[in-house]
Design goal:
Helix 2 packs parallel to helix 4 and helix 4 (about 95-115) packs parallel to helix 5. Helix content is about 40%, strand content about 15%. It has eleven helices and 13 strands. It is globular and about 55 Å long. With about 325 residues, it is of the alpha/beta class. It binds nicotinamide-adenine-dinucleotide and 2'deoxy-thymidine-5'-diphospho-alpha-D-glucose.
């Protein structure tokens, strides 16, 4: 049956991948609500079927607009956020406004209209793990966020849980690991290094590069969210991951090799303050209870396809590249 979905942050990286995924794999109608901050890009929504898609530019903190949009949909998937750790170290305020107050504003509308609400969150709420720790994050790992970004995401998760328990809002939460794929802003690790190489700039590795991230293709994140929206238990949290642990050093070396460069042609730069060492997701609940499986099991193949995408979409990323590199250069990164 066709649903009417509201997707916040749908002009960003993961939100736009989700919108493409939904319109390709379901009969649902999608309204995107996005403020088009520096991270939003309308080109990421090109080519969608216009009879099932609508774009609204606006702020999730705008209660009147949010209320009007909730009245016309069946369910809401909430991606909108300030998402970059490095920016949160530079200026935390927008993270508090969008991630905390914005989520609160949406929850109040979900409560008034009793709408199905799915909240997109991150594995960073759990803090980090030692490199040699056999443990991975599960749904019962205690919250211990490290950065202004992850602490605001943790706060937003707790708001969702409280609105479920206190007001009966029919909500679910998912906490996903690091995504890669098309439409990711060049401030982020993988697109930054790919576009650096395309511009003749050496890739930049923070600190020693031993930090580990658990990579998942954005399309696998989308299929997991759709599965939770369809069959997830109300009030429940699901961790999303695809067993993709890799050190940053290994990822940079693989990107260089796939792009025909010497594997050691990168620079070590100033480390991130408070840099989380390792993330690792145990997604057993999602796989066993809801039957979800990732499709992109081969990281190298997914990375090669991502490199191909950036090679052929320079008009999408070029307008932001110079400013991003100037920001990093000012911090010795
Ligand atoms: P992004 O920065 O690429 O996109 C964020 C989008 O939200 C942009 O289009 C921006 O314009 C919009 N936005 C920001 N503030 C807004 C506001 N006040 N009102 C309306 N729109 C606003 O982020 P992303 O990487 O796509 O992340 C999306 C979500 O997924 C976030 O909630 C993030 O915490 C979560 N997440 C990201 C990852 C990852 O690897 N990138 C992993 C797990 C979870
Ligand atoms: O784990 C999920 C999180 O993944 C999401 O919640 C965040 O929104 C998303 O941005 C991402 O956070 P990270 O901080 O892990 O991603 P980022 O791409 O900024 O960095 C990935 C790793 O690469 C991290 O260890 C820092 C390092 N890094 C980053 C950049 C930009 C570098 O070594 N060099 C770089 O130039």
């Amino acid at each position: 049956m066709s649903r009417r979905l509201l997707v916040t942050g749908g002009a960003g990286f993961i939100g736009s991948n989700f919108v493409h995924h939904v319109l390709e794999h379901t009969d649902d109608h999608v309204t995107v609500l996005d403020k088009l901050t520096y991270a939003g890009n309308l080109m990421s929504l090109d080519g969608l079927p216009q009879d099932r898609f609508r774009f609204v530019r606006g702020d999730i903190c705008d209660a009147a607009l949010v209320d009007e949009l909730f009245a016309g949909v069946d369910a809401v998937v909430h991606y909108a956020a300030e998402s970059h750790n490095d920016n949160s170290l530079d200026d935390p305020r927008p993270f508090l406004d969008t991630n905390i107050v914005g989520t609160y504003t949406l929850l109040e509308a979900a409560r008034r209209h009793h709408r199905r609400f799915h909240h997109i969150s991150t594995d960073e709420v759990y803090g980090d793990l030692e490199l040699d720790d056999p443990a991975r994050f599960t749904e019962t790992t205690p919250y211990s966020p490290s950065s202004p970004y992850s602490s605001t995401k943790a706060g937003s998760d707790l708001l969702v849980r409280a609105w479920v328990r206190s007001f009966g809002v029919p909500a679910t939460i998912s906490n996903c690991s690091n995504n890669y794929g098309p439409y990711q802003h060049v401030e982020k690790f993988i697109p930054r290094q790919i576009t650096n190489i395309l511009r003749g700039i050496r890739p930049k590795l923070y600190g020693t590069g031993e930090n580990v991230r658990d990579w998942i293709h954005a399309d696998d994140h989308s299929s997991a969210v759709l599965t939770i929206l369809d069959t997830g238990r109300i009030g429940e949290t699901y961790l999303i991951g695809a067993d993709g642990e890799k050190s940053n050093k290994d990822v940079v070396e693989l990107i260089l090799t796939l792009m025909g460069q010497p594997a050691d042609a990168y620079d070590h730069v100033t480390d991130r303050a408070g840099h989380d060492l390792r993330y690792a997701i145990d997604s057993t609940r999602l796989r066993t209870e809801l039957g979800w499986q990732p499709r992109y099991a081969d990281f190298e193949a997914g990375l090669a396809a991502t490199i191909h995408w950036y090679r052929h979409h320079e008009p999408w990323w070029a307008p932001t590249k110079t400013g991003v590199e100037a920001f990093y250069a000012s911090k010795g990164q």
